[in-house]
Fold:
Amino acid sequence: MSRLAYQYVVLRCVPRVDREEFVNVGVVLYCQATDFLDVAWQVDRERLRAFDPTLDLDQVCEALGFVEGVCAGDRRGGAAAEKPLGQRFGFLKAPRSTVLQPGPVHGGVTHDPARQLEHLMEKLVG
Structure:
């Protein structure tokens, strides 16, 4: 098996931007060599409520559903979902000042991008 280069970003929920606190809620992984772009996510509602009891958790989940749509290339992702995979990843990794923000871009090598996504989720989100 060959080693495949990939890039990923951790998705962070920032309940109160003014406090600069965040909780990791997902990972987006892109592997150009295999045309792989996917997201895995998990929202710990109790933990996020501890940061801000007024946070609209359904809206956070909807935003993560949008990311799923962009990765899958389906209607949930709007116009961004119609772009080539590399552009979609570029859209998803772009900095934002919203409640759902991507962290810095990281990279690595793997034999299996889907399994690597699972591993990163376990390690970085929990």
Notes: Residues 8 and 29 are 4 Å apart (CA to CA). The chain has a mean pLDDT of 95. The radius of gyration is 14 Å. Residues 4-121 form one domain.
